[in-house]
């Protein structure tokens, strides 16, 4: 839709992001994102890669997992759950 091309998303919040692969998330954050909040649990089951050639590739890792490995990106862990 042409009208959606002009939209920007300065704040993006992605819940259960452990289930989304990196290309899935990049669509949202490339549209002018200034603040990104990823919510997820890296101990839960992530996305499922069915194609045998893609299993074990970088596509099998979520953006959430990639960011967790980067020491320079600030992270915050939930301290209390209600």
Automatic annotation (TrEMBL):
Domain (DNA2/NAM7 helicase helicase): residue spans on this chain: 4-50
Pfam families noted in UniProt: AAA_11
InterPro entries: DNA2/NAM7_AAA_11 (IPR041677), P-loop_NTPase (IPR027417)
GO terms for MF: helicase activity
Protein name: DNA2/NAM7 helicase helicase domain-containing protein
Source organism of the structure: Hypsibius exemplaris (Freshwater tardigrade)
Upper lineage: Eukaryota, Metazoa, Ecdysozoa, Tardigrada, Eutardigrada
């Amino acid at each position: 839709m042409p009208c959606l091309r002009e939209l920007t998303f300065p704040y993006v919040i992605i819940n259960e992001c452990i289930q989304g692969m990196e290309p899935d998330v990049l669509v949202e954050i490339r549209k002018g994102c200034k603040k990104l909040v990823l919510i997820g649990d890296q101990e839960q089951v992530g996305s499922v890669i069915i194609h045998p050639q893609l299993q074990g590739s970088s596509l099998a890792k979520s953006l959430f997992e990639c960011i967790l490995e980067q020491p320079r990106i600030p992270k915050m862990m939930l301290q209390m759950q209600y």
